[in-house]
Design a protein that fits this description.
Elements: E1 11-13, E2 19-21, H1 23-29, H2 51-61
Antiparallel strand pairs: 1-2
Length: 63
């Protein structure tokens, strides 16, 4: 994936100034990197336990 990132399409900055990658960015990338990204569309499949289960539970309760 070697393209220039577009703000508000591929990423945005949250209220604390952190760059957050969007779901579109992750879908274009095509896999879970295992870092527990906020908008991971892959159900955190590469995140090790117990962090994976914690993140999935948190995702369900915020919907």
């Amino acid at each position: 994936m070697s393209k220039n990132l577009v703000e508000s399409v591929d990423f945005y900055f949250d209220k604390d100034g952190f760059m957050v990658l969007t779901e579109k960015y992750h879908l274009d990338k095509g896999y879970c990197c295992g870092h527990g990204c906020r908008h991971c569309p892959f159900e955190y499949e590469s995140v090790p336990e117990p962090k994976k289960s914690e993140m999935l539970l948190q995702k369900q309760t915020t919907r």
